[in-house]
Task: inverse folding
């Protein structure tokens, strides 16, 4: 069929058929899930703070909190699950309260509604206060006012406890009750201060300065719990500087255990509650007496041991003095001399006896040895005597012959004999002359002959050869 022959009704019918063929049909849960995914992927909605008025409030038995957050023009459902309630909701929220809800936006798929999942709920206005407190905390942290090096130790035994708080109310009552129970001998000094309101910070700071000058062992500074606005006096620079300037150790005890203030960071010690601060400051008298009794026993044992040790040392010194006295030393010396004399006498007697025995033995041995040697010598002499005689005769004969030859030589070399034979003995003042080299011209010399001496002078010296 050509399109030129279609009527408008036929064309409209054909378009409807084609649209029905191309469309996709989804379930409600798929659509809700898709929308939930879109909201979860939106980074802006993952962490958002929304302010409004609380209505339709329900504290469910499961621990969850359900409510509606509304303003003049719109409303949004809200839920805080039980796991966020302890840390995220610190005040008794009720219908009509102006609050700031911090959390994420999501879809309750079963009901097809979107809502805010609350993680923290604060009274309206506390968000700004919290920001101011956080800014001051960071500033003081950078200044070093929270540094551990400035923390003073809390004395173990405190007898004077200063308290800075309101003069009426549960705080001072709790501190006095705990202190009286733990130690009735502790003195409480109260420096009353206004702990809430515009002038509270100056009042607390002035009370801290007064009690610091009173000579206390420790100061407890605190108040009961409340909202952030109620606790603002303890989140100020004025109170922080006053605590930091105290010479006395300060225990901060502000609010409940979950409340934390700047005063807690500056103080030397933080207590979760005022009653806990009293427990920390006032030592237990019963425990103290028990410790004293224990230490008394230890001291007694130590003293008895020391006395016994000193007695033993004294006895030892007395013995040393006794042993070092002249009389005792003389007695010991005499006893030693007697013992030594006895030992010497016994030793001499023993040695004499031994020596006599040895001498007798040696005498016998020598006598026997001499007899043996004498007999051997006699035999030897008997053997060598003839040879000795023969040898002596031969040596005597040889000696006589040698003496005869020597006498002949001496006789031949005798100058007197030569002079007797006609020779002369020539000499000068220097001695005998044996060469013409010893005589110079005109030198005097002597010539001895057998019957006299001639004194002469050399007129001429002639050398032969």
Result:
């Amino acid at each position: 069929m050509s399109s030129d022959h279609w009527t408008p009704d036929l064309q409209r019918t054909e378009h409807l058929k084609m649209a029905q063929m191309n469309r996709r049909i989804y379930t409600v849960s798929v659509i809700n899930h898709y929308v939930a995914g879109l909201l979860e992927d939106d980074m802006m909605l993952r962490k958002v703070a929304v302010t409004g008025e609380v209505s339709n409030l329900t504290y469910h038995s499961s621990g969850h909190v359900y409510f509606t957050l509304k303003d003049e023009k719109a409303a949004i459902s809200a839920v805080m699950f039980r796991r966020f309630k302890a840390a995220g909701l610190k005040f008794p929220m009720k219908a009509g309260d102006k609050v700031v809800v911090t959390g994420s936006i999501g879809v309750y798929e079963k009901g097809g509604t979107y809502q805010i999942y609350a993680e923290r709920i604060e009274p309206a206005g506390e968000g700004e206060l919290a920001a101011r407190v956080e800014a001051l905390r960071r500033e003081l942290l950078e200044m070093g006012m929270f540094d551990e090096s400035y923390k003073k130790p809390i004395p173990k035994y405190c007898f004077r406890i200063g308290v800075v708080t309101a003069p009426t109310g549960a705080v001072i009552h709790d501190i006095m009750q705990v202190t009286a129970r733990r130690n009735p001998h502790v003195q409480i000094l109260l420096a009353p201060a206004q702990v809430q309101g515009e002038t509270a910070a100056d009042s607390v700071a002035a009370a801290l300065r007064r009690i610091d000058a009173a000579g206390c062992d420790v100061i407890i500074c605190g108040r009961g719990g409340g909202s952030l606005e109620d606790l603002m006096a303890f989140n100020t620079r004025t109170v922080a500087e006053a605590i930091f300037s105290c010479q006395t150790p300060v225990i901060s005890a502000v609010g409940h255990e979950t409340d934390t203030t700047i005063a807690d960071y500056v103080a030397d010690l933080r207590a979760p509650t005022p009653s806990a601060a009293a427990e920390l400051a006032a030592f237990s008298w019963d425990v103290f007496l028990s410790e004293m009794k224990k230490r008394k026993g230890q001291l007694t044992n130590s003293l008895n041991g020391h006395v016994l040790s000193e007695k033993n040392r004294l006895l030892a010194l007395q013995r040393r003095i006794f042993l070092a006295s002249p009389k005792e030393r003389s007695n010991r010396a005499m006893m030693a001399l007697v013992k030594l004399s006895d030992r010497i006498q016994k030793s001499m007697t023993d040695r004499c006896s031994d020596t006599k025995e040895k001498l007798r033995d040696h005498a016998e041995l020598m006598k026997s040895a001499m007899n043996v040697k004498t007999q051997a010598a006699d035999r030897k002499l008997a053997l060598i005597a003839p040879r000795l005689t023969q040898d002596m005769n031969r040596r005597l004969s040889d000696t006589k012959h040698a003496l005869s030859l020597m006498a002949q030589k001496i006789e031949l070399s005798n100058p007197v004999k030569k002079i007797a034979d006609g020779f002369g003995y020539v000499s000068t003042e220097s001695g005998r002359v044996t060469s013409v080299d010893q005589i110079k011209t005109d030198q005097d010399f002597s010539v001895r002959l057998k019957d006299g001496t001639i004194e002469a002078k050399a007129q001429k010296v002639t050398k032969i050869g």
